[in-house]
Design brief:
Order of helices and strands: HEEHHHHEEHHHEHHEEHEHHEE
Helix content: 40-55%
CATH topology of the largest domain: Arc Repressor Mutant, subunit A
Shape: globular
CATH superfamily of the largest domain: Winged helix-like DNA-binding domain superfamily/Winged helix DNA-binding domain
Largest sheet: 3 strands, antiparallel
CATH architecture of the largest domain: Orthogonal Bundle
CATH class of the largest domain: Mainly Alpha
Radius of gyration: 20 Å
Oligomer: single chain
Strand content: 15-25%
Distance between the termini: 36 Å
Strand order of the largest sheet: 5-7-6
Number of domains: 3
Structural class: alpha+beta
Length: 277
């Protein structure tokens, strides 16, 4: 974000930021504390200590044609969702619909380290229209995050986790793009502090077979996943080999692969050995 914008909005470390769709591909950015004034036009501001109401965000409705395009995009492996490959599977009318979905933010373009454009589906739309529901006993081990929206200090007061510990995790997540949490109590506290980001799909998490909790920023997955999956496109590959080739920490590679495994993109064939699904 440009420094001029940060200065104009008076954004300080720890402030919550919201993006509100104005129309089509236009968005308004504002501090969470200014949202009520922005929406109502009222000059009155609520006290910073007054609890803010929980706002639910309904998933915008998609047409059958739009859902059909998403389903086609979902047939491509994550690493294969390039502009050329997408164009091959879509008809003329579908390509027009694809562009409309991109403008609406339903489909998000991003570039890998080679500057090749890939496409992802925003989590809220994926969950609403494409998520494959399975019986609970058939689901892979996962960390379901569904906690009340609370701030770090409130979380610390309601748990045995020191506020400094939670803040340390937050800093590590921001700096590295992922964190590995050893205990369920710590993971629950962190998830509570990140509730809003998790609900918006900006942060995702899972519990792996090694019983560790991996919490990852979506932007980190988007930027690194194509590089990681390119190492397992032809054969099953151990995590240390992938990490060395990608010049990433082994836990960073595991974090990406465990999240991709949750959505069926990759499979852990043996401990620490992955292949494309």
């Amino acid at each position: 974000m440009p420094r001029e914008v940060v200065k104009t909005l008076g954004i300080k470390e720890g402030d919550d930021i919201d993006f509100i769709q104005y129309k089509d591909s236009y968005y308004i950015i504002a501090k969470r504390s200014d949202i009520a004034k922005l929406i109502t036009g009222s000059p009155q501001q609520k006290s910073a200590t007054e609890p803010q109401p929980f706002r639910s965000y309904a998933v915008p409705k998609l047409s059958e044609a739009e859902i059909a395009v998403l389903k086609k995009l979902d047939t491509l492996r994550y690493s294969s969702r390039t502009t050329d490959q997408v164009a091959k599977i879509l008809g003329k009318d579908e390509r027009i619909t694809f562009k409309q979905l991109e403008k609406r933010g339903v489909i998000t373009p991003f570039k890998d380290e080679a500057q090749k454009t890939h496409y992802s589906i925003q989590k809220m739309f994926y969950d609403a229209y494409l998520m494959r529901k399975k019986p609970a006993e058939q689901q892979k081990p996962g960390y379901s995050i569904n906690l009340n929206k609370v701030k770090v200090d409130q979380v610390a007061k309601s748990t045995a986790i020191p506020q400094g510990t939670i803040e340390k995790y937050m800093d590590s997540l921001q700096d590295a793009g992922y964190i590995v949490v050893p205990t369920e109590s710590d993971a629950a506290a962190i998830s509570a502090a990140l509730e809003d980001s998790i609900r918006r799909g900006l942060v995702v998490g899972t519990r792996a077979f090694n019983k560790k909790f991996y919490i990852v920023m979506r932007s980190f997955i988007n930027s690194k996943a194509p590089l990681v999956t390119s190492q397992i496109s032809e054969k099953s590959t151990p995590v240390p080999v992938i990490a060395k080739a990608c010049k990433l920490d082994e836990e960073a590679v595991r974090a990406i692969l465990y999240i991709l495994a949750e959505s069926g993109e990759v499979t852990e064939v043996r401990k620490d050995i992955f292949r494309l699904a």
